[in-house]
Amino acid sequence: MSLQKEVVIDRIEILEDGQMQIRQATRILEDGKLLSSAFHRSVVAPDKEDMTDQNDRVQAVASVLWTKEVKDKYKADKASKDPKVA
Which helix or strand (DSSP H or E) is residue 27 part of? Predict the structure, then answer.
């Protein structure tokens, strides 16, 4: 009997405004068979400057997705909803 814990980013969803929803799965396996799983979700916005705390896959998607235009539009939309942001 061999128990193994596996933590992976198993889903990255892109929202219309450029935000990414990230799902991290924690799986417990016994002899390769899934015994249990749990999920943690987080959201990362295009105005996030430091991505070093994110998984390599998330960083790679962000580097392609978050063009200057996407970042500028996200900031403008955010500012139009909350004047304190501008």
Answer: strand 20-30
